[in-house]
Amino acid sequence: MTCFGAHPIVAVRLFEGCLKEPSCVNTAAEIEVDERWMRQALAAASEAQARGEVPIGTCIVSEDKLIALAGNRTRTDCDPTAHAEIVALREAAGKLGNYRLTEVDVYSTIEPCAMCAGALIQARVRRLIYGAADERAGGVISRFRICDTDFLNHRIEVQSGVLEEECRTLMQEFFKTRRGRIVD
Amino acid sequence: MTCFGAHPIVAVRLFEGCLKEPSCVNTAAEIEVDERWMRQALAAASEAQARGEVPIGTCIVSEDKLIALAGNRTRTDCDPTAHAEIVALREAAGKLGNYRLTEVDVYSTIEPCAMCAGALIQARVRRLIYGAADERAGGVISRFRICDTDFLNHRIEVQSGVLEEECRTLMQEFFKTRRGRIVD
């Protein structure tokens, strides 16, 4: 769990300056809910890995109900845009009959890339919860701050570090196994 | 045509520091080719407008052949990710049977947003040519520089300002007509 100046059990929400002056914290019950949904995203990541994809998974939740669940599908679908987040957003919009998803929370095992962070803004999602940071290319905190700028017409509440170790380990093991075999 | 320190007829390619020290320029023949393809993107933008969409169009070209042509489809398809660029990339990948599109050029009437700029990177496209800048939310030059950073594993050659006036006017007229009727 990534904490910024708070007790380790308490995750600070990164939203409208919360990084500097934390005013909102998660309770143990909220953390338990986040971890429960992140386990679903992790299962989708493992399923993606079994298909030869980079093991990243996403689930989309509204009112504590699962709306969409997806792993990466770029190779499976021969589609450069088929990251887990994009696949899940499309499925959720279809299911809810609305291309604005203002009432949903998105759980992703890894910090979304620029494309996916931008898609979350386009969909107007309420909250993004992710596991491990992508320090090389992350579009939320690490490289670009697409989800909470003051010049786009939407901001997303961001929570990082949920089941961080499991999410990171899945990726590290995948790339360790693959190294020397496939060049991506 | 947006020029940086060059003769007005000559457009400087923005790539690996070209902005500061232009070393590559477009010939009149190259400009004619770019304008020809941009007219196709403009036609797709107009077709999107006729469907009630924001008038942005994209065409994807390889070896001077049209591979994909699309306008925005977010409302039409109830899909928050269905910007013209994403729709065209998916179509091109399906048609070419490859989720890496290293040999294609992408023409878009407006500077891509963060989602679409990120998608162009994911697809590893060779070149992006766009018409007018999106100063509020552009992901290429205006707000984020997603297409030519040194920390992502791909860089795209970028050309801006092709048929800039036509592309900008189409958007301005659309929003002028719509103002007061629909809140987006």
Description of the molecule:
The structure is a homodimer of 184-residue chains. Chain A contains 5 helices and 5 strands; from the N terminus they run H-E-E-H-H-E-H-E-E-H. Chain A has helices spanning 28-50, 74-77, 84-96, 114-122, 164-178, and strands spanning 57-62, 65-71, 105-110, 127-132, 157-159. In chain A, strand 1 and strand 2 (65-71) form a beta hairpin. A 5-stranded mixed β-sheet of chain A has the order 2-1-3-4-5. In chain A, helix 1 packs parallel to helix 5. The radius of gyration of chain A is 16 Å and the shape is globular. With 184 residues, chain A is of the alpha/beta class.
Describe the secondary structure blueprint for this structure.
The structure is a homodimer of 184-residue chains.
Chain A: H1 28-50, E1 57-62, E2 65-71, H2 74-77, H3 84-96, E3 105-110, H4 114-122, E4 127-132, E5 157-159, H5 164-178
Parallel strand pairs in A: 3-4, 4-5
Antiparallel strand pairs in A: 1-2, 1-3
Helix pairs in contact in A: 1-5
**Overall pLDDT metric of chain A:** 87
Order of helices and strands of chain A: HEEHHEHEEH
Classify the secondary structure makeup of chain A into a structural class: alpha/beta
Widest beta sheet: strand line-up of chain A: 2-1-3-4-5
Distance between the termini of chain A: 30 Å
Largest interface: A-B, 40 and 40 residues
Low-confidence stretches of chain A: 1-23
What would you call the quaternary organization? Answer: homodimer
Strand content of chain A: 15-25%
